[in-house]
Amino acid sequence: xxxxxxxxxxxxxxxxxxxxxxxxxxxxxxxxxxxxxxxxxxxxxxxxxxxxxxxxxxxxxxxxxxxxxxxxxxxxxxxxxxxxxxxxxxxxxxxxxxxxxxxxxxxxxxxxxxxxxxxxxxxxxxxxxxxxxxxxxxxxxxxxxxxxxxxxxxxxxxxxxxxxxxxxxxxxxxxxxxxxxxxxxxxxxxxxxxxxxxxx
Length: 200
What we know:
Blueprint: H1 5-12, E1 17-18, E2 20-26, E3 29-35, E4 38-42, E5 47-53, H2 59-65, E6 67-72, H3 78-83, H4 89-92, E7 100-101, E8 109-110, E9 115-127, E10 130-142, E11 145-148, E12 154-156, E13 172-175, E14 178-181
Antiparallel strand pairs: 1-13, 2-3, 2-6, 4-5, 5-10, 6-9, 7-8, 9-10, 10-11, 11-12, 13-14
């Protein structure tokens, strides 16, 4: 029995995710697409994975550029998630009227995002109606800091193209087909601190 697409979406919608915009630039062409199929794969080397719809206009830009940036959105950037998910002149002709800068690969990094990953493609795999890209991280940033993988030092984002970052925001979340904001009053560590071993 074939699985119904709508029910598959409903089931997968029970898995809460963050919201990202994956961007790329090939020569003078830039593109971006809203993606929640994103995850880390490996720490050594640092690898990430994104899945891109085969019908997306951004797909050929990613392939031709050989790189992509994953922009993790704040809860104040829902409008960017919506814009980069639609087929519209604002997206294709005006890049959703958002400012960006670049880091290691030249892929656009949206201003004031929660965090970003800048990666070069090391492999592409078929994934049904999506293409799966494996990227090796070249640079990454969070808050006011950026780290380049091939450098031991850290630099501030304020030194990149004159861009000054805002204070850290909360993430934009997506659950059951709707945007959500995280409750800031409930915080617990993911793992309990192990008790000290008896050294006697």
